[in-house]
Write a structure and sequence with these properties.
The protein is α/β, with parallel strands linked by helices and 265 residues long. Helix content is 32%, strand content 25%. The longest helix is centred in the last third of the chain and has 15 residues, at 242-256. The model has no long low-confidence stretch (mean pLDDT 94).
Length: 265
């Protein structure tokens, strides 16, 4: 198989929204990034796992409908991951329950790793493998990004050697700058940290950059951070500087806030 520009590895899930949306939509950090890249005419691949159930069928169908170029899905004897979401009276989104299901059991196999090592850029979402995949890819000089904010275990959040580390830091740009410093000190080559309504902060080893947000009428913020990451990744590989890349991420995230879920379905 020829090498692709981008591959995304890790989580997918079914986002089950309660009132007022009452919808079940395909999502997950790694899958959302792959779809957003494809929707913006970038050649992308997705690697993950679903169950042998209707939600797994829906996930595969949705990836194909959104023109993700190569889909490498393991079908496991576990349910497709899902998340139950509700909203406060003020419209804030609450995660009521998560079942990681097949995504929680997913590890790229040797054949998949052989494909991934030939990718130009691999983005890792939620992936519980003790950091094995990113360690393997670093050994093969692949540009690797990871969203550390969606992972929980320390071994899965280690930024050492990452080409680009994404994270989040509440609603404070001061806290975001502090977190960027921490990620660089821990071994990330570049770091970008979002800070809610305050925007984002990044450092690429030479230059700092900051971006605000695009004010929009928010329908749902699910997947906005994933769209932001996809925008930054695509811009960097088009030769844009860090400031321009944060601005593209901001613009892609704003679009996502205008509809339910991480992308239109």
């Amino acid at each position: 198989m020829p090498s692709f520009e981008f591959a995304c590895v890790g989580d997918n899930c079914i986002d089950r929204f309660g009132a007022p949306l009452h919808q079940a939509l395909v999502g997950g950090n790694a899958l959302n990034v792959a779809v957003q890249l494809a929707r913006h005419k970038e050649e992308s691949a997705y690697f993950g796992a679903v169950g042998r159930d209707k939600d797994g069928d829906l996930t595969l169908k949705t990836l194909n409908e959104n023109h993700v170029s190569n889909v490498h899905i393991q079908r496991l004897d576990a349910p497709t991951a899902y998340t139950n979401l509700s909203f406060t009276p003020d419209g804030d989104r609450i995660i009521d329950f998560e079942d990681f299901g097949a995504s929680g059991e997913y590890r790229p196999n040797s054949a998949e790793l052989d494909i991934l090592r030939r990718m130009r850029h691999v983005h890792i979402g939620w992936l519980k493998d003790g950091g094995a995949t990113k360690q393997f890819l670093r050994q093969h000089n692949v540009f690797v990004s990871q969203d550390l904010g969606v992972n929980a275990a320390p071994e899965d959040k280690d930024p050492t050697g990452l080409s680009l580390a994404f994270d989040s830091a509440g609603d404070s740009k001061a806290d975001a700058r502090t977190r960027v410093h921490e990620l660089i000190d821990l071994g990330a080559q570049r770091a970008v940290v979002t800070c809610g309504m305050e925007g984002s902060v990044g450092y690429d080893g030479n230059n700092w950059a900051e971006a605000g947000i695009n004010p929009v009428e928010i329908i749902d913020t699910t997947g906005a951070g994933d769209s932001f990451a996809a925008g930054v990744i695509a811009a960097l590989h088009k030769g844009k500087n860090l400031q321009q890349s944060l601005e593209q991420g901001r613009d892609w995230a704003a679009i996502t806030c205008c509809h339910p879920g991480g992308f239109p379905q």
